[in-house]
Design brief:
The chain is α+β, with helices and mostly antiparallel strands. The chain has five domains: 116 residues, no CATH class; 122 residues, GAF domain (Beta-Lactamase, 2-Layer Sandwich), CATH 3.30.450.40; 124 residues, Beta-Lactamase (2-Layer Sandwich), CATH 3.30.450; 114 residues, PAS domain (Beta-Lactamase), CATH 3.30.450.20; 223 residues, 4-Layer Sandwich (Phosphatase 2c, domain 1). It has 25 helices and 27 strands. It holds the Pfam family ANTAR.
Length: 824
């Protein structure tokens, strides 16, 4: 049917303009009416979704039918003085207690109680920070506007749950929950095991964009990958400024982004990317809860809906296929399933299955490990940066982990056992496949050889003289100073790389190997392109066929630069040491001559006032052990007999000169008539103040022939030994610090009256000292040796030297006195 325009008189325009204006006005009114009807239909659909969910909750809680549940909902709303929509949202929130509940609770507590509220009131009740929340659609129905936020999130949940695919779910999320936040587009990405991203659903973008961004390979830096790798919400105020590519990044209407990882139970299976025309809204706890709730809805959609093809996300069949795969591998394999704690968070992994070739690093049978939690069998996996952290990251992001020569430590009876293995960790749905290849003997030997070559700086080669093929290992390229992609040099070119002075040796080497077909070696200096001169040694052997023809040459180079310079340094050190030894020998000979000139090995016997005195001096067997041992036996002007022994610390010329100083000082001080204690006190001042820090032990005694009284004192020395009536004992110890230790020391005297037949022995520690025993054991042996019968004093001293068990090869001094019986 056609309608012809009414004819009008020529030149008449007013009526036409009026009719045209009237037509445009009617058209605008029609468009507005249709838009209002669409908005009302959308609100009604949103409300129906929430109401249906609330009725379902009442059916389950009250055990009633749908009609009765609807009647109960009406009665409860009327009784509470609330709208059915508001009460329905509260019933759902109380039953769910999920992220959607958290996101809507703040809005529900401030929702209007009546139906007549001004449009501006929605902003006050719902918060101006949310922009177009509340009565953003301009509807006069302010009650529905104030409940918009609460119902939109539940409507988005309902739409996503009912969507046949991820694309429809994305459209529902944008229409119901994101447009009120001023968002203009949304993308739902599915994360694969290799960390690649597949666009599962998108809304608000052009068809060309969704086609272009259908698949993002692993390793491409995009906002979605940033959230996947960092496992947290990431915000981008402007993709153009930051230079990150993503779906719709060329359009000025989708420049700001908020990207949220989508997953549950600690496992990330996708990413939700929300777009704004400018910078996203300022972050707030309310906005974060909304986006996290929408990300969980997206994760549920990815788990239950097909993206490109069904994946192994969950399901007994997929898990069975994974265990079959584990049994078919020849490596040690674990199939791990996530284990969640009471709060729902990922706590550990259950060892669901072990492959038929599983080998426990600690040597335990598979039956003990299977079915346990990972941390129960391998508690050290919880270390920072350890195995558990790697498994959690793979489970969360889907990005596989591969590493070689990883140290795996297990506790067996509180004893840590470590094995070296190659690891591969991959995610398959909700399960994680852990492949562990314990290095076998052959692999360990190969690694050992490789490390030995590296540490020994050995480079191997093989030259096929038939085909001309030359094979070098990486270490040989380094010895030559060449990159690994350079062409290996043949043996015949060796003289060109050697120092000219080494060409004769290289020539003999090549003739022996290539012409005479005999193994040979040579040392030479190599000239490298970096001007570094290295000392190398080459060893080669020919490979012959049955007829004796040369087929190939195998061999190795070794960097002996360190050895060469060590030998040079060793030769110089050897020369210096020989010079030092010569100087030391001269010093020792001088010390020995000085000591023997002052201390003859045998002196006596001396018979004064009826007292027999004998001495023995045994020098050290080695010249470098010449020490400072000394003795004294002299008659003083007063008629008293001065007896003494001493031992200066150290060996060599310093000890010998210190001995001379102390011995001569004692002789001079004894002429004063002072007693032994006073003499040692003066001698201590000499050692401390008048020498170069000399320290020594000493034993000093004065014998009065008229009274047979012996007075004695000691300075850190061993006490004398008394032989009386065939029994031996040491004299009671008196106090006295060694000479030179302190500047002021006091010494105690001992007094002894000799009886006829008594023998008294004074000695230095070279007579008794041993490396493997205590001093008391040495003294006990001395007392036993001293009891041996002897014809006279001289024989007794000789017996002491002969039967001494000392093993230090130190100097030894002995002073012996004997008071014979009357008539002898």
């Amino acid at each position: 049917m056609s309608i012809k325009p009414e004819s009008r008189p020529h030149g008449s325009t007013d009526g036409g303009l009026d009719d045209a204006g009237l037509s445009v006005g009617r058209l605008a009114a029609t468009v507005e009416r249709l838009r209002r009807q669409i908005r009302e239909a959308q609100r009604a659909a949103d409300g129906r979704g929430v109401l249906e969910l609330a009725r379902g909750v009442l059916v389950e809680r009250l055990r009633c039918g749908p009609a009765e549940a609807a009647r109960h909902l009406d009665e409860l709303a009327a009784r509470a003085g609330r709208s059915r929509l508001e009460l329905a949202a509260e019933i759902i929130n109380q039953a769910a207690r999920d992220r959607v509940t958290e996101a809507t609770q703040a809005f529900l507590t401030r929702a209007v109680r009546g139906d007549a509220v001004a449009p501006d009131a929605a902003d006050g009740r719902l918060g101006a920070a949310d922009g177009r929340l509340g009565a953003a659609d301009g509807s006069p129905d302010a009650a529905n506007g104030s409940l918009a936020v609460a119902t939109r999130l539940r409507a988005a949940e309902s739409g996503a749950m009912a969507a046949p695919d991820a694309q429809t779910a994305a459209e529902a999320l944008l229409a119901n929950a994101l447009r009120p936040l001023d968002a203009v587009a949304v993308a739902v990405w599915s994360a694969a095991a290799d960390a690649s991203l597949t666009l599962a659903g998108a809304a608000g973008f052009g068809p060309n964009e969704t086609t272009r961004w259908r698949y993002v390979p692993p390793g491409i830096a995009t906002p979605a990958r940033a959230a996947l790798v960092e496992r947290r919400t990431v915000r981008f105020s402007s993709l153009k400024q930051q230079g990150l590519p993503s779906i719709g990044h060329h359009a000025s209407t989708a420049d700001g982004r908020v990207v949220v990882p989508a997953g549950t139970g600690g496992r990330i299976i996708g990413v939700l990317e929300v777009c704004w025309p400018g910078p996203p809204p300022e972050p707030s706890p309310r906005l974060e809860r909304q986006l996290e709730a929408l990300a969980e809805l997206s994760a549920h959609t990815l788990e239950t809906r097909t993206v490109d093809e069904p994946g192994p996300r969950g399901g007994d069949r997929a898990l069975t296929e994974l265990t079959d795969l584990a049994d078919g591998l020849h490596d040690s394999v674990m199939v791990l399933l996530p284990h969640h704690g009471a709060d729902g968070a990922l706590a550990d992994f259950r060892i669901h299955h072990l492959g038929t070739h599983f080998v426990d690093p600690a040597g335990r049978p598979a039956s003990i490990v299977a079915g346990t939690l990972l941390l129960e069998s391998y508690p050290l996996a919880a270390d920072r940066g350890g195995l558990l952290e790697k498994i959690e990251r793979v489970h969360a992001t889907g990005e596989p982990f591969h590493a070689e020569r990883v140290a795996l430590t297990s506790l067996v009876g509180q004893v840590p056992l470590t094995a070296v293995a190659d690891l591969s960790i991959t995610r398959h749905g909700d399960a994680v496949l852990l492949v562990c290849r314990i290095q076998d003997q052959a692999a360990r030997l190969a690694n050992l050889l490789q490390h030995a070559q590296r540490l020994g700086r050995i480079g191997g080669f093989e030259e096929n003289l038939v085909t001309g093929e030359i094979t070098w290992n990486s270490q040989l390229f380094e010895l030559y100073g060449l990159p690994t992609d350079a062409s290996p040099s043949p043996l015949t070119a060796l003289p060109a790389h050697a120092h000219p002075d080494d060409e004769p040796a290289i020539g003999r080497f090549l003739r022996t190997v290539l012409r005479h077909h005999q193994p040979s070696s040579a040392a030479f200096r190599i000239r490298r392109s970096d001007q570094v001169v290295r000392h190398l040694r080459i060893i080669a052997e020919p490979v012959l066929d049955d007829a004796g023809h040369l087929l190939a040459v195998r061999g190795a180079y070794q960097d002996v630069s360190a050895q060469h310079w060590t030998e040079v340094a060793l030769a110089a050190t050897r020369d210096q040491l020989a010079h030092t030894e010569q100087q030391a020998a001269e010093r020792n000979r001088l010390a020995l001559q000085l000591q023997r000139a002052i201390m003859p090995s045998t002196r006596g016997p001396l018979d004064v006032g009826g007292l027999q005195v004998a001495v023995r001096y045994r020098p050290a067997e080695h010249e470098h052990l010449v020490g400072g041992d000394w003795y004294e036996a002299v008659v003083l002007p007063s008629g008293h007999i001065l007896l003494g022994v001493g031992d200066v610390a150290g060996h060599g010329i310093d000890a010998a000169t210190g001995m001379v100083v102390l011995r001569n000082a004692l002789r001079g001080l004894a002429a004063t008539g002072a007693g032994p204690a006073q003499l040692l006190a003066w001698l201590n001042l000499v050692a401390h103040d008048l020498t170069d820090h000399v320290t020594a032990t000493a034993l000093c005694a004065l014998y009065d022939p008229s009274t047979r009284v012996l007075r004695w004192a000691r300075a850190g020395h061993l006490a004398p030994v008394m032989i009386r009536d065939g029994e031996t004992s040491t004299l009671p110890m008196v106090r006295g610090l060694m000479l030179g230790a302190l500047d002021d020391s006091e010494y105690e005297e001992g007094v002894l009256t000799l009886a006829e037949g008594d023998v008294l022995l004074m000695y230095t520690d070279g007579l008794v000292e041993r490396r493997d025993g205590s001093i008391q054991d040495a003294l006990d042996h001395l007392l036993v040796t001293a009891r041996r019968p002897a014809d006279d004093l001289e024989s007794r001293l000789d017996n002491l030297l002969t039967y001494s068990n000392a093993d230090t090869d130190d100097d030894t001094c002995i002073v012996g006195i004997h008071l014979p019986a009357s008539g002898r």
